[in-house]
Amino acid sequence: MKSRLRFTLQLGFTLLVCLFMIVPVAMSVMAGLTENYFVGLQSGLTLRWVNEVWQLYADTIWLSIKLALACLLITTLIGVPAAYGLLRSRRRWANAIEELLLLPVAVPGLATALALLLVYGSYREFRGSWLFILIGHVLFTLPFMVRAVLSVMQTAKLPQLEEAAASLGASFRQRFFGVVIPNCMSGILAGR
Q: Residue limits of the ABC transmembrane type-1 domain (predicted)?
Protein backbone atom coordinates (compact mmCIF):
# COMPACT_ATOMS: atom_id res chain seq x y z
CA MET A 1 0.00 0.00 0.00
CA LYS A 2 2.78 2.39 0.94
CA SER A 3 4.72 1.74 -2.28
CA ARG A 4 1.56 2.23 -4.36
CA LEU A 5 0.92 5.60 -2.69
CA ARG A 6 4.52 6.57 -3.27
CA PHE A 7 4.29 5.59 -6.95
CA THR A 8 1.05 7.57 -7.35
CA LEU A 9 2.59 10.67 -5.77
CA GLN A 10 5.70 10.40 -7.93
CA LEU A 11 3.61 9.91 -11.06
CA GLY A 12 1.42 12.89 -10.17
CA PHE A 13 4.44 15.10 -9.55
CA THR A 14 6.04 13.98 -12.82
CA LEU A 15 2.86 14.74 -14.75
CA LEU A 16 2.62 18.19 -13.15
CA VAL A 17 6.21 18.99 -14.12
CA CYS A 18 5.55 17.75 -17.67
CA LEU A 19 2.44 19.92 -17.92
CA PHE A 20 4.33 22.89 -16.52
CA MET A 21 6.90 22.51 -19.30
CA ILE A 22 4.69 21.40 -22.21
CA VAL A 23 1.66 23.71 -21.85
CA PRO A 24 3.54 26.98 -22.58
CA VAL A 25 5.16 25.43 -25.66
CA ALA A 26 1.81 24.11 -26.89
CA MET A 27 0.19 27.51 -26.32
CA SER A 28 2.99 29.24 -28.26
CA VAL A 29 2.58 26.84 -31.17
CA MET A 30 -1.18 27.36 -31.11
CA ALA A 31 -0.72 31.14 -31.05
CA GLY A 32 1.53 30.91 -34.09
CA LEU A 33 -0.78 28.67 -36.10
CA THR A 34 -4.24 30.14 -35.40
CA GLU A 35 -5.81 33.14 -37.09
CA ASN A 36 -6.92 34.65 -33.77
CA TYR A 37 -5.30 33.28 -30.61
CA PHE A 38 -8.09 34.43 -28.30
CA VAL A 39 -10.79 32.67 -30.32
CA GLY A 40 -8.71 29.51 -30.69
CA LEU A 41 -8.98 26.83 -33.35
CA GLN A 42 -12.44 28.05 -34.39
CA SER A 43 -10.78 31.08 -36.02
CA GLY A 44 -8.93 28.77 -38.43
CA LEU A 45 -5.36 27.72 -39.02
CA THR A 46 -2.82 29.89 -40.78
CA LEU A 47 0.91 30.19 -41.34
CA ARG A 48 0.73 33.99 -41.48
CA TRP A 49 2.37 34.52 -38.07
CA VAL A 50 5.07 31.96 -38.79
CA ASN A 51 5.79 33.74 -42.07
CA GLU A 52 6.02 37.12 -40.34
CA VAL A 53 8.45 35.78 -37.76
CA TRP A 54 10.47 34.10 -40.51
CA GLN A 55 10.72 37.36 -42.47
CA LEU A 56 11.92 39.19 -39.37
CA TYR A 57 14.43 36.61 -38.15
CA ALA A 58 15.44 34.48 -41.17
CA ASP A 59 18.94 35.96 -41.34
CA THR A 60 19.45 35.37 -37.63
CA ILE A 61 18.20 31.79 -37.88
CA TRP A 62 20.50 31.02 -40.82
CA LEU A 63 23.46 32.61 -39.04
CA SER A 64 22.72 30.49 -35.97
CA ILE A 65 22.60 27.33 -38.08
CA LYS A 66 25.88 28.24 -39.84
CA LEU A 67 27.56 29.00 -36.51
CA ALA A 68 26.34 25.74 -35.01
CA LEU A 69 27.65 23.71 -37.96
CA ALA A 70 30.99 25.54 -37.94
CA CYS A 71 31.30 25.02 -34.18
CA LEU A 72 30.47 21.35 -34.61
CA LEU A 73 33.12 20.93 -37.29
CA ILE A 74 35.82 22.78 -35.35
CA THR A 75 35.17 21.03 -32.04
CA THR A 76 35.22 17.67 -33.80
CA LEU A 77 38.44 18.46 -35.68
CA ILE A 78 40.16 19.70 -32.51
CA GLY A 79 38.48 17.57 -29.84
CA VAL A 80 38.97 14.07 -31.27
CA PRO A 81 42.73 14.40 -31.89
CA ALA A 82 43.13 16.17 -28.53
CA ALA A 83 41.37 13.30 -26.74
CA TYR A 84 43.50 10.79 -28.64
CA GLY A 85 46.67 12.66 -27.71
CA LEU A 86 45.65 12.77 -24.05
CA LEU A 87 44.88 9.05 -24.11
CA ARG A 88 48.20 8.07 -25.69
CA SER A 89 50.34 10.37 -23.53
CA ARG A 90 51.61 8.85 -20.31
CA ARG A 91 53.24 12.03 -19.08
CA ARG A 92 52.25 14.18 -16.14
CA TRP A 93 51.56 17.20 -18.31
CA ALA A 94 48.70 15.32 -20.00
CA ASN A 95 46.68 15.55 -16.77
CA ALA A 96 47.42 19.27 -16.52
CA ILE A 97 46.33 19.82 -20.13
CA GLU A 98 43.15 17.83 -19.50
CA GLU A 99 42.38 20.00 -16.48
CA LEU A 100 42.98 23.15 -18.53
CA LEU A 101 40.70 21.85 -21.28
CA LEU A 102 37.96 21.21 -18.72
CA LEU A 103 38.33 24.61 -17.06
CA PRO A 104 35.57 26.29 -19.13
CA VAL A 105 33.11 23.76 -17.66
CA ALA A 106 33.91 24.91 -14.12
CA VAL A 107 33.84 28.62 -14.97
CA PRO A 108 30.35 30.05 -15.53
CA GLY A 109 29.54 30.89 -19.15
CA LEU A 110 28.89 34.53 -18.33
CA ALA A 111 32.37 34.86 -16.81
CA THR A 112 33.90 33.29 -19.92
CA ALA A 113 31.97 35.69 -22.17
CA LEU A 114 33.05 38.66 -20.05
CA ALA A 115 36.68 37.51 -20.20
CA LEU A 116 36.48 37.23 -24.00
CA LEU A 117 35.03 40.73 -24.19
CA LEU A 118 37.74 42.13 -21.93
CA VAL A 119 40.55 40.49 -23.87
CA TYR A 120 39.27 41.05 -27.41
CA GLY A 121 36.84 43.91 -26.86
CA SER A 122 39.19 46.58 -28.14
CA TYR A 123 39.21 44.98 -31.60
CA ARG A 124 35.90 46.39 -32.80
CA GLU A 125 35.79 44.62 -36.16
CA PHE A 126 36.55 41.28 -34.54
CA ARG A 127 34.09 41.84 -31.69
CA GLY A 128 31.29 42.63 -34.13
CA SER A 129 31.90 39.64 -36.38
CA TRP A 130 30.47 36.14 -36.39
CA LEU A 131 34.01 34.82 -35.82
CA PHE A 132 33.96 36.23 -32.28
CA ILE A 133 30.76 34.33 -31.53
CA LEU A 134 32.19 31.17 -33.08
CA ILE A 135 35.33 31.32 -30.93
CA GLY A 136 33.19 31.73 -27.82
CA HIS A 137 31.07 28.72 -28.75
CA VAL A 138 34.12 26.59 -29.52
CA LEU A 139 35.74 27.52 -26.20
CA PHE A 140 32.56 26.60 -24.38
CA THR A 141 31.80 23.31 -26.20
CA LEU A 142 35.30 21.90 -26.75
CA PRO A 143 35.64 20.49 -23.20
CA PHE A 144 32.44 18.50 -23.63
CA MET A 145 33.73 16.96 -26.87
CA VAL A 146 37.14 16.11 -25.40
CA ARG A 147 35.67 14.63 -22.24
CA ALA A 148 33.06 12.52 -24.05
CA VAL A 149 35.53 11.17 -26.62
CA LEU A 150 38.23 10.56 -24.02
CA SER A 151 35.81 8.61 -21.83
CA VAL A 152 34.86 6.35 -24.73
CA MET A 153 38.51 5.94 -25.73
CA GLN A 154 39.44 4.88 -22.20
CA THR A 155 36.81 2.14 -22.15
CA ALA A 156 37.13 0.88 -25.75
CA LYS A 157 40.43 -1.07 -25.46
CA LEU A 158 41.90 1.04 -28.24
CA PRO A 159 45.55 0.12 -27.64
CA GLN A 160 44.83 -3.57 -28.30
CA LEU A 161 42.74 -2.79 -31.38
CA GLU A 162 45.39 -0.44 -32.75
CA GLU A 163 48.12 -2.98 -32.09
CA ALA A 164 46.13 -5.63 -33.95
CA ALA A 165 45.63 -3.26 -36.90
CA ALA A 166 49.33 -2.34 -36.88
CA SER A 167 50.31 -6.02 -36.89
CA LEU A 168 48.21 -6.41 -40.04
CA GLY A 169 50.17 -3.60 -41.71
CA ALA A 170 47.85 -0.62 -41.16
CA SER A 171 49.49 2.80 -41.19
CA PHE A 172 48.80 5.37 -38.48
CA ARG A 173 46.27 7.11 -40.72
CA GLN A 174 44.47 3.82 -41.47
CA ARG A 175 44.42 2.94 -37.76
CA PHE A 176 43.12 6.38 -36.77
CA PHE A 177 40.34 6.56 -39.35
CA GLY A 178 39.59 2.83 -39.52
CA VAL A 179 39.88 1.81 -35.86
CA VAL A 180 39.90 4.82 -33.53
CA ILE A 181 37.17 6.95 -35.11
CA PRO A 182 34.61 4.12 -35.59
CA ASN A 183 35.15 2.90 -32.02
CA CYS A 184 34.75 6.43 -30.64
CA MET A 185 31.68 7.37 -32.65
CA SER A 186 29.40 7.22 -29.60
CA GLY A 187 31.65 9.71 -27.78
CA ILE A 188 31.85 11.95 -30.83
CA LEU A 189 28.06 11.99 -31.13
CA ALA A 190 27.69 12.61 -27.38
CA GLY A 191 30.17 15.49 -27.51
CA ARG A 192 28.24 17.27 -30.23
A: 61-192
Q: 85: helix, coil or strand?
A: helix
Q: Domain 58-191 maps to which CATH number in 3.30.420.130, 1.10.3720.10, 2.30.130.60, 1.10.1740.10?
A: 1.10.3720.10
Rg of the chain over CA atoms, in angstroms? 24
Query: What DSSP string describes 125-150?
Result: HHHTSHHHHHHHHHHHHHHHHHHHHH
Query: 113-148, pLDDT tens digit by residue?
Result: 888 888 887 777 777 788 888 988 898 899 999 999
At 76, the pLDDT band (50, 70, 90 cuts) reads very high
Q: Which residues contact 146 (CB under 8 A, 6 or more apart)?
A: 79, 82, 83, 86, 98, 101, 102, 191
The letter for the amino acid at 140 is F
First to last CA, the chain: 45
